[in-house]
Each structure stands twice: as C-alpha cells, then as structure tokens.
Amino acid sequence: MMSNRQVTDCIDEWKSLEKEYSVLDADFEKYRQQLDDLYVLQERCVKMINHQKKRYQHLLDTFKENSGIINGEEKKAVNEIEAQMNKRQNNFKQMEDNLPRDSGKLLTAILGPMSVSLLKKQDRFKYKDEYEKFKFICTIIMFVFSFTNLFLVEFRFSDALYHFVLLWYYCTVTLRETILRHNGSRIKGWWVFHHYISCVLSGVLLIWPDGPVYQLFRNQFMTFSLYLSLVQVLQYYYQRGCLYRLRALGEKGNMDITVEGFQTWMWRGLTFLLPFLFFGHFFQLYNAYTLYTLSYHDDCVEWQVPASALIFLALFFGNFSTTVLVVLQKVRNLNPKKPADKTN
Ligand code: COA
After folding, report:
1. Chain segment 260-317, per-residue pLDDT in tens
2. Residues in the chain with pLDDT < 50?
3. Which of 56, 181, 220, 284 could be stapled to 316 by a disulfide with Cβ–Cβ 3.0 to 4.6 Å?
4. Whose CA is nearest to atom 21 of ligand 1?
5. Distances from the Cα of 304 to the Cαs of 37, 182, 217, 275, 290, in angstroms?
6. Integer Cα distance of 76 and 84 in angstroms
7. What is the domain count for the chain?
C-alpha cells in the first residue's frame, strides 16, 4: 500500500507538471499563431512573385512591339530594365525554391492534393540522399535475385517474382524522381521516362507465358540484369560522390573543395563509368536483336516477344543518345571561367 509521503510527492509532481503544461500550452498557441502567419506570408509571396512575373512579361512584350520606334535615351533605359529583370528572374527562382509549389497533375493524380515541396535545403539534400540509398539497396536485392535465377534456380515462378519486384521498384523510383524534379533536381526527363518504360517492360516480362521462346531468352535477360546491377553499383558511387561534393561546394566557408577539384573528380569518375554504361546500352540493343529474331521463331506465338524487342530498342536509343548528350554538355561547360552547369 502507498504511504502518505508518496502521495504527497505525487501531488507535488502533478503541480510541477501543471506549470510545465501551461508553458507548453502557451508555446503551442504561439506556434499555431506563427504557423497561420507563415501560411499567409507564403501565399502572399507566391501571389506577388506571379504578379511580378506577369507584369515583367507585359513590359517585355511592350518593349518588343515598340523596339522600332524608340530613341537612344529610351533604348538605354530599356536595356537597363531588361538586365534588372534577368537578375530578378534568378532571385525569383531562389525564392520559389523556398516556397510551396503546385504539385502538378501527375503527382496530384497519384498522391491527391497535397504539397510535396521540401522547403529547406537540408531536407532536399536528405531526400536525394535517401533516394540514392533506396536505389542502392534495391540494386543489391536485384543482384541477388538475378544471380539466384541465373545460377541456382530455374522456375518460372521465381522469374515472375523477380519481374514483379522490378515492376514495383521502377514504379517507386519514378514517383520519387517526379518529387525530386518538383523540388528542383535537374534529372533529365529521359531518365524518368526511361523508368516508366522499364515499368512497362517489367509488366510485359511478368505476363509473358512460359514456353520454349521464353526459355530461349531467359538466361540472356538474367545475365543482362546481373550486369545492370553491377553498373548501378558503380553509378551509385559516382552519383553519391557528386552529391556530397556539390553539397560541400555550396557550403559557405568550406575550403575543402573547389570547382576545379569537383570537375577533376567528376571527369575521373565519368571516364571510369562510361565504358560500362555504353556496354550496357549495347547489351540492350543486343537484347532487342535477340528478341526480334525470336519473334520469327517457329514456336513464337506470344505478342510479348516483339513488344519487348521494341522496348529494348527504345531504351537503347534513349539511353545512348541522352548519355552522349550529357557528356557533350559537360565538355562544353569545361570552360574554366564558366563553372559546370551542375555547380549552379
Ligand atoms: N537517373 C536518375 N538521376 C540521374 C541520372 C539517372 N540515370 N543521371 C543523372 N541524374 C541526376 C543527377 O543525380 C543530378 O541530380 P541533381 O540535380 O538532383 O543533383 C541531375 O540528374 C543532373 O545530373 P547530370 O549532371 O546531367 O549527370 P551526372 O553527372 O550526375 O551523371 C551519367 C551522368 C552519364 C553518369 C548519368 O546520367 C548516367 O548514369 N546515365 C546512364 C544511365 C543509363 O544509361 N542506365 C542504363 C545502363 S544500361
């Protein structure tokens, strides 16, 4: 049984908790008030940015319409205004990075009307870092799956499970990439689209019925998947290296890395990675060719064969041309006076 002394202690503790609660209550009220003010301010800033942008466009159109009839003095003033407007566009971009944005039709259709804007730089970095880690863990799982299917088991069910995991992975990755792009990532549209096409490919392979033609392609596909997992591991180390170095570059007062240092590291990483990537692209072309020849096989009755041949061909063209374009763009940005696009 509880003694009186213990009850008195409990009553004292309750009194102190009461005091603590009243501080918490006041703090929460303050927080709620500030949150309301913050929403009002956010809305006002978004409205003002849109208004300014609209008026700038109106002014630019008027300048253009009257460009033939303005005198020297006016031309000087117009040039000055246009230069100021260009600067302001950059300022607007920075402001917009810290304000909630409309999620767009696709994200709204998938997630419903909610905001996926990450307003703090640290949160954006964390989300990207988490995305890279997620891809890495999935790559390891896929490596294990394709290795098992290639060397240890030969069941259509186990293949189907693997295709299903791939389908889930690509769906998840496209969603995360859309959120990343919404938050200012410069991921090229093709890489996101490439993952959409990969979803379709995984779906087609999943429902491809077992038969002689499936068996003729199966081992080649598992070998390709195994190779792709290895390339994705290399890609992971390169992308994460870029991410951390870019973050260090963006930090004020960080003297550990310079733009030149970043570029040297990036080129070293890229020249190591590119042969593996190009080999992967030609492997995709080879897959398309094998599937194309299989589509003329006597036993081939499945539509999945020519369909996956076409998808592999599209993947080859898109991946190869986009990678070449990315490299050419980086070569163009090599001018030491103008830092690479990535560091902007
Ligand atoms: N998937 C997802 N995101 C990618 C990407 C890809 N394949 N390639 C680049 N990105 C992202 C970068 O992380 C960066 O994001 P950030 O703005 O959030 O920092 C942004 O896109 C811009 O990157 P960029 O400077 O264009 O390229 P990079 O130096 O990061 O990478 C390559 C260049 C060529 C190594 C990369 O694009 C790549 O690996 N491409 C090949 C992919 C492929 O073909 N896969 C199939 C292999 S068979």
Report:
1. 888 888 899 999 999 999 999 999 999 999 999 999 999 999 999 999 999 999 999 9
2. 337-344
3. 284
4. 187
5. 57, 34, 12, 30, 13
6. 13
7. 2
Residues 117 and 21 placed together within one structural domain of the fold: no
Same domain membership, residue 67 and residue 144: no
Domain termination site, one of 55, 78, 99: 99
- Tell me the best of 233, 341, 342, 344 to mutate to test the pocket of ligand 1, counting ligand atoms within 8 Å of each CB and taking the most: 342
- Report how far residue 256's alpha carbon sits from residue 245's, in angstroms, rounded to the nearest whole number: 9
Asked if the structure places residue 127 within a domain, the reply is yes
Residue 299 backbone phi and psi in degrees, to 5: -90, 0
Q: Is 87 in the pocket of ligand 1 (CB under 6 A)?
A: no
> How many A from CA of 195 to the centre of ligand 1?
13
Q: Which one of 125, 182, 188 would you pick to mutate in the ligand 1 pocket, going by the greatest count of ligand atoms within 8 A of its CB?
A: 188
Q: Is residue 340 part of a domain?
A: no
As a whole number of angstroms, the distance between CA 317 and CA 334 comes to 26
Residues of the domain holding 235: 106-334
The residue whose C-alpha atom lies closest to atom 6 belonging to ligand 1 is 191
Nearest to 174 by CA among 188, 195, 190, 197: 195
Ligand 1, atom 13, residue with closest C-alpha? 239
- Of 84, 29, 27, 24, nearest in space to 56 by CA: 84
Listed residues 52, 81, 99: the one ending a domain: 99
Q: Which two tokens stand for residue 230?
A: 């290895």
